[in-house]
Fold this protein.
Amino acid sequence: MMRAPQTITISGAGSCRTPALIGTLMQMKERFPVKKVIFFDKDMKRFAKIEDYCRLLLHTFSPETEVVVTDDMDEAYCACDFVFCQMRVGQNKMRSYDEKIPLKHGLVGQETCGPGGFAYGMRSIGGMKEMVDCVRKYSKDTWILNYTNPAAIVGLALDRLYPDDHRLINMCDQPYSMMVSFAKILNVNVKKLRARYFGLNHFGWFTELYDTDGHDYFGALRDYLKNHDFKPYNAEQRTQSWLDTYLRVNKMMNCISEYIPTTYLQYYFYADEIVKESDPHFTRADETVLTREKEVWDVCAQAKGKTELGNIQVLSSPVFGSMMVEVAESIAYDLNAEFIVMTRNTGLIDNFPAEAVVEVAGTLGKEGVRGIPYGKIKPFYKGLMENQYAYEELTCEAWMEKDYTKALQALALNRTVNDFDKAKAVLDDLMAVNQAYWTLEKRDEPCI
């Protein structure tokens, strides 16, 4: 039976991830047919670098698909079935500040964790709210699939702002990426793997791994990681900083090996070590521009003025793109496929706040997200998560109330900071460069 074709809007279409997303869409067009693709970005100059390539892919593999390119929000969101949202508010210029300003203060400089993640989150909340409000002005039925970082802060803020909007789905591809890496190690098909998992976004642990036939792989994987370097599935394409990130999973498991931690936990357990190894003048923002972005732009440039694909490489993404399309497919055709999902807790983790947005295994279908109950978590993990959740909650409240004190409290709580003097210094510097995106008011309140 033919599946009904969908209209999708790609928000933040100027991203270097978009060409591979389109390539993946074309690879999966029988599973997720698309009748119309709307490319939306506020920066048309950036999208122009990849426009010819994206049009050429669509013309080659799906000539019946209508293509719209726009910088007008109303045109982008007035009539679509799905929004694939991957916006970066402030682009790489602001990402560079997010990473370099904390390093100036001897703190972790990372785009989603620590002070950099705080600043990026404060920018992203506003950008996401503007987008959701515009989409909902036209339709309550459009599915918004949000992959905008930092997903933990953005997801919690959106849950507070739109508590009854069950078609607003927040996702992250890092657990999916780790599952692909696990599958390569175990020599099994990732589509057959299932996990038990708990945490917050970029702050979680795998606790079981098995396949659809019930075969348990967790013990074998844990033993492997005790004795072999953990490498991403695409290690040959990764920079050294990313290879080092995966190696720290081994290091964390040398201390506590009962669960497999996500890679981002390195920033909370080895903050001092990471700061010492970081170059405050050259961070991942610079690395991305010189490597991944350049590689994508170079491929896309070959499509300029071409009417046939010829030998031009078809970019695709076995993680980000595949997950985005698979999630949309599962929702559109009510497949209830299983993913690691972000959702309001409401008893999924018994001994954790019900209103928190947690990350657990769950399914996605026409009713949205359905988390799979996890049960209770142990005191060590519960304590870590409660501290991190308090940081996320205070960050969201700081944005909503424009409250300097709550922002300061959030940063002082963050495990990558843990110092009021440093928290205040880095907050003031981040505020200074983010005035166009967010502001805070100092009030006559105590710091704690």
About this structure: The radius of gyration is 21 Å. The chain has a mean pLDDT of 97. The first helix runs from residue 18 to 27.
